[in-house]
Automatic annotation (TrEMBL):
It comes from the Archaea. Keywords: FAD, Flavoprotein, Oxidoreductase. Its cofactor is FAD. The keyword Protein transport does not apply. This is Flavoprotein. Gene3D superfamilies: D-Amino Acid Oxidase, subunit A, domain 2, FAD/NAD(P)-binding domain.
């Protein structure tokens, strides 16, 4: 789409923040507290209605900002349970070897709580609206920003579907993964599946008493469990289970390129976790899935933009690729908060020196000085991946691990207590190569060598994909599809049939399907698209040849849990 230019008088604010997730909320709260006239635009019908997380929100001791510091009362009103115990389970068939990694999780952690995004984001939005209204701005929902307003090629504001263009001295793109603003500014692209993860999850209804009894915890305690090994057909990634007040979040996060390479049906991989015997102890016999959801997640090691600004525009959070996978522990919300607050502070400082246009450079410098960039793109990973992420090294590591010597070493390492410590080490986690070895082979061999058979009968029956879609709420923008297939050949777009979390081979009710058409007397396999059941995860923007944008404000899927 042609970016409109500034030819008329437009409404002007000192700052416009796009997106009311943790990054946008932190930026807006900080701007407003410093007296900056700020308007926040959120496309969801309600803040959080478009958002999905695992999710544990961390407050790191080393971080300059935490969300409860910026929005007091956050833990009391917006979160579920604190994480008091953290485990990782290595799985091979029915054999499981578990390590307690609570100590590793507590390193550099002031606190970490489980959250559901609809509840969390709507609470933050109320506080942010109160704060920004005092500056002459406010928070508007149901407004989708659809482009950058330019004057002589310089970014001077944003354009919206539902409002007239808005000019601003400072523009915060906190519009999450698949940020259309980051793309329009040329700061991020959606080309490489290697730079992304895909998360798929189920929110499972469970009374608080049952959670306490089944996990052996009190109301003010919570557990986190991670899963890896051979239950995912070789796809690189892992699973999670987090306890909320009266529900569980259970899901998987996989490298997107691996999903594509293995042609994995991602909803089936979720079912593989849900129906594993290990989960029987927690799920019991009644399974009531409240919500199915999915979203892309950037891998900061590859995607974080080291210079996330252009003119008046800055990127914060997922929009700038600032989502850290510290081995199995996922930290995106906390970095979005830090980045949002740092960006806001950079603008306040720049403005006080009479040079608001230098805010972007200051923000970049602060990300560096506060150690955020070093967490997002650790040097250790750059070195380790250069040495370890190639076929020869991977093949060697796989064969060595699977040899009698390798298996004996795994047993010896466990006897010496090294395996548990290795899993709990953020240092080692940040060097983990992005290969099958740490995600699939090592956990499988650990479970085979050291695991105990779990014989529990898991009798639950997860809903079918059709039932999952049927339970979601949509406000479909009839006749106005937000994704258009540019190339319907199987070679260009076929990967979406399996990778799309609401599509599957042979399933007629999803977004993508493969079909045979007659062309010049020949039969041809092509891909077709129906955006009605789309959960806006962003996957097909990367794995298929599409013209991809978010639906208009308030339209599309509405998550009640997130
Ligand atoms: C399955 C899964 C598990 C995860 N687990 C964890 C975890 O345990 N811990 C953790 O910290 N992180 C986790 N993450 C990552 C985390 O959710 C993100 O890193 C985090 O939400 C990023 O915050 P943000 O503010 O940058 O973006 P978002 O939270 O995505 O917010 C962006 C906002 O912008 C709005 N928006 C987008 N486009 C527009 C537009 N054009 N106009 C107006 N508004 C717009 C959206 O509606 C949304 O409200 C997980 C993610 C997934 C998918
Ligand atoms: S159509 Fe694309 S964006 Fe929508 S759910 Fe499927 S893969 Fe995700």
């Amino acid at each position: 789409m042609e970016a409109p230019t500034m030819t008329d008088e437009h409404e002007h604010y000192e700052a416009v923040v796009v997106g009311a997730g943790p990054g946008g909320a932190a930026a807006a709260a900080t701007l407003a507290r410093n007296g900056v006239e700020t308007v926040v635009l959120e496309r969801g019908v309600d803040a959080g209605s478009k958002n999905v997380t695992g999710g544990l929100i961390y407050a790191e001791e080393s971080a300059p900002y935490t969300i409860d510091g910026l929005l007091p009362g956050f833990r009391e009103h917006a979160t579920e349970r604190p994480v008091t115990d953290y485990y990782i389970h290595n799985i091979a068939g029915e054999k499981v070897k578990t390590f307690d990694i609570t100590q590793g999780h507590e390193r550099d952690t002031e606190w970490a709580d489980a959250v559901l995004r609809r509840k969390m984001d709507s609470w933050m939005a109320e506080r942010v609206h109160e704060l920004t209204r005092e500056t002459g701005g406010g928070l508007l929902t149901g407004v989708k920003v659809n482009g950058l307003l330019r004057d002589n090629n310089e970014i001077v504001g944003v354009t919206c579907e539902e409002l007239d263009p808005i000019e601003a001295d400072f523009i915060v793109a906190a519009d999450g993964v698949n940020s259309e603003l980051a793309r329009a500014a040329g700061l991020m692209d959606w080309e490489e599946p290697e730079e992304w993860f895909q998360g798929v999850k189920a929110v499972v209804d469970m009374p608080g008493d049952a959670i306490n009894e089944r996990f052996g915890i009190d109301d003010d305690e919570g557990e986190a469990h991670l899963f890896s090994g051979d239950l995912y057909d070789g796809v690189r990634g892992g699973g999670f289970l987090y306890t909320n007040e009266s529900s569980l979040c259970i899901g998987n996060v996989f490298h997107l390129d691996s999903i594509v390479a293995e042609e994995a049906e991602v909803q089936e991989l979720l079912d593989a976790l849900l129906t594993h015997p290990l989960l029987a102890q927690w799920l019991g016999e009644e399974y009531d899935e409240r919500e199915y959801s999915a979203k892309l997640v950037p891998d900061s090691k590859k995607a974080a933009n080291p210079s996330p600004h252009e003119g008046r525009l800055v990127l914060v959070g997922d929009a700038g690729g600032q989502m850290q996978a510290q081995g199995p522990i996922i930290k995106g919300m906390n970095h979005a908060v830090t980045a949002g607050a740092l960006a806001a502070e950079a603008f306040v400082e720049a403005r006080s020196r009479g040079k608001p246009s230098t805010a972007g450079e200051r923000y970049e410098q602060r990300l560096h000085d506060e150690g955020v960039m070093a967490k997002l793109r650790p040097m250790r990973y750059e070195v380790a991946s250069a040495a370890g992420e190639n076929d020869i090294t991977t093949d060697l590591a796989e064969r060595l691990l699977d040899s009698p010597l390798g298996r004996a070493s795994v047993r010896a390492a466990d006897t010496a207590g090294l395996l548990g410590r290795a899993y709990g080490s953020p240092y080692l986690a940040s060097m983990m190569p992005d290969t099958k070895t740490p995600y699939v082979t090592l956990p499988t061999i650990i479970a085979e060598e050291l695991g105990t058979r779990v014989a529990d009968d898991n009798t639950i029956e997860p809903p079918s994909l059709g039932e999952r879609i049927g339970e979601l709420t949509y406000d479909t923008d009839v006749g106005n599809p937000h994704i258009v297939l540019e190339d319907d050949s199987v070679a260009a777009s076929g990967a979406a049939v399996t990778a799309c979390p609401v599509s599957a081979e042979g399933f007629g009710g999803g977004c993508y399907r493969e079909e045979t058409v007659q062309s010049n007397g020949d039969e041809e396999r092509v891909v077709s698209l129906d955006t009605q059941p789309c959960v806006e995860c962003g996957t097909c923007a990367v794995v298929a040849d599409t013209q991809w944008e978010h639906p208009r404000g308030g339209k599309g899927v509405e998550f009640r849990e997130g």
